[in-house]
Design a protein that fits this description.
This protein has 284 residues and is α/β, with parallel strands linked by helices. It has a single domain, classed as NAD(P)-binding Rossmann-like Domain (Rossmann fold, 3-Layer(aba) Sandwich). The chain is 48% helix and 13% strand. It contains nine helices and seven strands; from the N terminus they run E-H-E-E-H-E-H-E-H-E-H-H-E-H-H-H. A seven-stranded parallel β-sheet has the order 3-2-1-4-5-6-7, with helices on both faces. Helix 1 packs across helix 6 and helix 3 runs parallel beside helix 4. The termini are far apart.
């Protein structure tokens, strides 16, 4: 194989091969649109619903179940055969099943673990081996403030994001001295269908403490991080200090959670009204 061992930091990403999972979701699709407009080559992985087709010649949509071992192998083989390299991996695929943990169906619990964590770990392992051979690469994990602040009534999702955060920081240390970088993007609530779905859960509230950001905000942050790798970017930045303060100690979080829950429920009502789905949800 003919690999180029140049650093991507601070340089153009034109013609860089970027593999992104969860590309058909709200955040994933926004990232794809941002990357292809910057002239990179994007392998966009989706599972079920292909977004409306757009006239991008430098994006290749590929249907893949990344929780399936054979599909994962085929995905990596395809990238190698077609492009001979992968410069950036963006682990964006994720799913949230809100509700009280004791009432959560086992199949939904397992699906969150398989998609949010297991598949991300295994794909990263496969791509990391390639990047080490290339002598350069960048792995970007899309986390959540739910990986810093506990999310009652979305406990499993929160746990998977805690795991992704720990994985990212651990891997960063392992890769010191190499030209392979790892970054974690940690957004707060994002205005996507996932947030709409979470709003349907009666007790789910902590995601609605503040106004959700746009998927484009996350996409812009991803592009900035590709150009200038950093360990972690929390967006919006205004939530960085508050999120860390909340987890100063488990006891402190428990004390303030009742108040946060009340504020979050109020924020959720505003969210439902703002985006015109309140009446629809009342009928469900």
């Amino acid at each position: 194989m003919n690999f180029a061992g140049e650093q991507m930091s601070g340089k153009s990403i034109k013609n860089k091969v970027i593999l992104i999972t969860g590309a058909s979701g709200g955040i994933g699709n926004a990232i794809v649109n941002k990357l292809v407009s910057d002239d990179s080559i994007v392998v966009a992985v989706y599972h079920q619903n292909l977004p409306p087709l757009q006239s991008y010649k430098n994006v290749f949509w590929i249907k893949t179940d990344i929780t399936n071992s054979k599909d994962r192998d085929n995905l990596v083989s395809f990238c190698l055969k077609k492009y001979n390299r992968i410069d950036v991996l963006i682990n964006c695929a994720g799913i949230l099943e809100p509700g009280e943990f004791s009432s959560l169906e086992e199949i939904h619990l397992q699906k969150m673990i398989d998609l949010n964590i297991t598949s991300a770990f295994i794909i990263t392992k496969k791509i990391l081996s390639l990047m080490k051979l290339q002598g350069v690469g960048h792995i970007i994990n899309i986390g959540s403030l739910g990986g810093i602040v506990p999310m009652p009534y979305s406990a499993v999702y929160s746990a998977t994001k805690f795991a992704l955060r720990g994985f990212s920081f651990s891997l960063i240390e392992e890769l010191i001295g190499t030209n392979v970088k790892v970054s974690l993007i940690t957004p707060g609530s994002v205005n996507t269908k996932m947030l709409d779905y979470e709003a349907q859960a009666d007790k789910s509230a902590i995601s609605f403490l503040s106004k959700p950001i746009s998927p484009i905000d996350v996409a812009n942050t991803v592009l900035q991080t590709i150009h200038k790798p950093t360990i972690e970017k929390i967006i919006p930045f205004s939530q960085s200090f508050a999120s860390r303060l909340l987890v100063f100690s488990p006891k402190f979080f428990s004390i303030v959670y009742k108040l946060l829950h009340i504020i979050g429920l109020s924020g959720k009502k505003k969210y439902l009204n703002r985006y015109g789905i309140f009446n629809l949800l009342k009928e469900m």
